[in-house]
Amino acid sequence: MILVTGGAGYIGSHTTVVLQQAGYEVLVVDNLSNSEANVIDRIEKISGKRPAFEEMDLVDTAKVDALFTKYPIEGIIHFAASKAVGESVQKPLLYYRNNLQSLMNLLESMNKHGVKNIVFSSSCTVYGQPTEDNLPVTENAPVQVALSPYGNTKQVCEEILRDTIYAHENLQGVALRYFNPVGAHESALIGELPIGVPQNLMPFITQTAMGLRQGLKVFGGDYQTPDGTCIRDYIHVMDLAKAHLIALERFMKSNFKKRFEWFNLGTGTGSSVLEVIQSFEKMSGEQLAYEIVDRREGDIEQIWAETTIANEELGWTSELTLDDMTASAWKWEKYYNEVLKPQAEA
């Protein structure tokens, strides 16, 4: 059985589907702080299997330990974390408590109960703002001072993971440093569903197009980029989900080279905020109302991945395009608001 923490959330739900379709039994643990319980029903509808589900907070040490006693866990994919850059600047203690304590509790219980394998959901934010010499970003690029508490928690969590694995020969794992996940499952039954005001670009775009937001704010138009807006490496969530399965099996089948490894997950192509908006307008047929406002604290100017190591060593490559991402995100947004939400409220 594979434990997927945060498995009712955006990336976790898509990864749960991929795991089940590959034949694994899955245990989803989620405190539902940024997700809905009925996501489990939709996962079952897609895959034909219902994952086991426990609603709990991984900051609770005793409950985490009891979880490992109750279930025959063989491996872990750890997504559960607070993840919004802007919010982390405003609420740093929340981010340090949630993100660090949950990982430490998992590692302690893994060591105690003989669970060897963990895939950690990391982020390209560990690289900070790369210099021109380090673009595109390779796995060997220096980890720089984080520009937000969120980014710092990912750096510190990687250090905790590395040090704990090196201290205990029975543990092994991988940190997947991914760039900017967007898009949704082709069924439109699961997708990105932030609680409250979206902190990420794509759901703000789709909610604006649905009329749920008055207008889209583009934070900063004076960056040193071709069109003045931030550049990111956007990756389809289904490509990302498949990478987690590949990484998990790499360790479960002992195909790894070191007990702690890390890989960049991106497309290798940077897209600006305005390019994402243009792709969305093309694929949806909708015109977006947006305005360029002041820069947002904590944002990185530009970053995209060098994917050679992930492609050749991990044996994974992204397949879906930016247009695929924006089209699937729009399909999900419409289906959620026109079908799923009214059903839930009925």
Automatic annotation (TrEMBL):
Keywords: Carbohydrate metabolism, Isomerase, NAD, Plasmid. Its cofactor is NAD(+). It is an enzyme of class 5 (isomerase). SUPFAM superfamilies: NAD(P)-binding Rossmann-fold domains (SSF51735). InterPro entries: NAD(P)-bd_dom, NAD(P)-bd_dom_sf, UDP_G4E. It comes from the Bacteria. The keyword Amino-acid biosynthesis does not apply. Pfam families: GDP_Man_Dehyd. This is UDP-glucose 4-epimerase.
